[in-house]
Amino acid sequence: MNSYLVRSVIRKSLLQAGGISQTRYSSTTSITRSSTESFVRDRSSSNYFSLYRTLSSKTESVSTAELGSAKAAKVEAALIEKEKKNDSAGGGEKKETGVVFSSYWGVSRPTVTRDDGTVWPWNCFMPWETYKADVSIDLGKHHVPKTFLDKFAFKTVKLLRIPTDVFFQRRYGCRAMMLETVAAVPGMVGGMLLHLRSLRKFQHSGGWIKALLEEAENERMHLMTMVELVKPKWYERFLVLTVQGVFFNAFFAMYLVSPKLAHRITGYLEEEAIHSYTEFLKEIDSGKIENVPAPAIAIDYWRLPKDATLKDVIVVIRADEAHHRDVNHFASDIHAQGKKLRDAPAPIGYH
């Protein structure tokens, strides 16, 4: 009799499976009631009480789960409503895509404006990081190689120029783009290694970490500007990937072995950059390259006039390269004198 009742309960439960409903509750109640009456007749009161308590606890657990789900739904609805109120009150930053970036961690950027009150459109640099390039800098300075390392650095740079001339020829826009992907590497490598050395030896760097990282960032901004003017093709992007991978690792190893040689090579690379941008300006003056309006990012970064052109951009970039030339030759001279960079104050504050 007991096994028959149990099988009946299981059979009816399976037939009515597929979700908890009011019908299931009523059928379960009737089954419980009928099984209770049978067990009263055939079993002792203690066994009946045990089975009844088991079935009752199952029913109570279902009701408790349902009640918990209802409470969770109410809490979730309240949280959603609170987020909507915070967003309407300015608690998040909305983009054009409709995505809301929460300021929960307190890292949201405050509203930044230009001098004329318009909203600052760039996230990669702020108004206080802009500057006016020193276009009066001497462009014709050249470090005459005298020592073996200087001559080796000079010849190395001249050899590196040959494949560049063959590949780009007189396409100075693409040439400048490739040049900047390489020129941004030395400052980053030098700054990174000086940073690690400062941590290891518990020593200040004399400002050279900041100076070299500023140089790397400035060269990167040159690249961001050139990309606005020259759209690189797929094979040029592949070339950039290859050259950067080879040059970064080679320069990293070189800086570990001889910082003097590394800075001297960088100084000669900057001299070649000045030459390339001078040729670029000649092509613009001759009309072979159209003197298009300057990109908006260049106007804001170098504080150029609103009607600035491509020629104005190339002039300020060339001035930056001349400054980098002087900084790196100066750094190499410090090492040539048997001193450390931290022994001489870094030329910071230009950018």
UniProtKB/TrEMBL annotation:
Query: Tell me, what is an example of a GO biological process annotation in this record?
Result: alternative respiration
Keywords from the named record = Electron transport, Iron, Membrane, Metal-binding, Mitochondrion, Mitochondrion inner membrane, Oxidoreductase, Respiratory chain, Transit peptide, Transmembrane, Transmembrane helix, Transport
Gene source species: Papaver nudicaule
| UniProt key word Transmembrane helix | yes
Which EC number applies? 1.10.3.11
Q: What cofactor(s) does the depicted protein rely on?
A: Fe cation
Name of this chain's protein? Ubiquinol oxidase
InterPro entries found in the cross-reference section: AOX (IPR002680), AOX_sf (IPR038659)
Binding, Fe cation 1: E180, E219, H222, E321
Residues the entry annotates as binding Fe cation 2:
E219, E270, E321, H324
* One Gene Ontology term of the molecular function aspect: superoxide-generating NADPH oxidase activity
**Entry-linked PANTHER family:** ALTERNATIVE OXIDASE, UBIQUINOL OXIDASE 2, MITOCHONDRIAL
Q: What class of enzyme is it?
A: oxidoreductase
Q: Which reaction is this enzyme known to catalyze?
A: 2 a ubiquinol + O2 = 2 a ubiquinone + 2 H2O
How is the cofactor bound, as the UniProt entry phrases it? Answer: Binds 2 iron ions per subunit.
Similarity-based family:
Belongs to the alternative oxidase family.
Alphabetical list of Pfam families matching this protein: AOX
Q: Is the Cell division keyword given for this protein?
A: no
Cellular component per GO, a single term? respiratory chain complex
Membrane disposition:
Multi-pass membrane protein
Which compartment or compartments is the protein found in? Mitochondrion inner membrane
